[in-house]
Amino acid sequence: MARKSATAAAPAFDEAAAAQDEVYVTGSGAPAAADRRTLEQAIGLQIRHHRKLMGLTVAELAGAATVSTGMLSKIENGQISPSLSTLQTLASALNMPISLLFSEFEERRDCSYVPAGQGVVIQRRGTKVGHNYELLGHMLGGAIACEPYLITLTEDAAPYTAFQHEGTELIYMLSGEVIYAHAGNSYHLKPGDTLLFDSGAPHGPEKLVVKPMTYLSIIMYEKD
């Protein structure tokens, strides 16, 4: 009669579960995203911000809203969850709609999806013949504007090196070839080449070597 082993079998190693426990980060040098505030913290920040804009002390706002200074201090620090009636009296005392108290908590995290071939074709003042711009997406929020374009220079396109605007621009060459000028220097761009530059200096295609050509242009600048 065979003896049963007294040693329990070791559990199988679950590679998928182990992988889920690992923390992955991108190669970007951007700082980590800030932790999302609680609703109470977001409301408190809005109340404090608008109180200071009106030049009111905690005691003055508390008196106008008929709440205690201790309660208002806790509300501004996100330590308690005030009732809707309390928020209504505070909003009234600050001469602001109550909905504004929730605006920071409900801040959008934008995402723009554009299916292939459905970018918005842009025609603006200064657009050159044969220079076709297709906007590939847009962000509504944030302090930095980001405009990604698919630019096509057709057979009837002509060189133009006087483009100039605020911000930083990245060009990634997709097809064709171009001699691209920036601030008095020239760069021969072929598919796969990248050019990142200060777009405040004059720039643009100096010589159209192989037409038609396409390149991705991403323009970033601070909003007013």
Automatic annotation (TrEMBL):
The keyword DNA-binding applies. SUPFAM superfamilies: lambda repressor-like DNA-binding domains, RmlC-like cupins. Residues 47-101 form the HTH cro/C1-type domain. The keyword DNA-binding applies. Keywords: DNA-binding. Coiled coil: none annotated. SMART domains: HTH_XRE. Pfam families: Cupin_2, HTH_3. This is Helix-turn-helix domain-containing protein. The lineage of its organism: Bacteria, Pseudomonadati, Pseudomonadota, Alphaproteobacteria, Hyphomicrobiales.
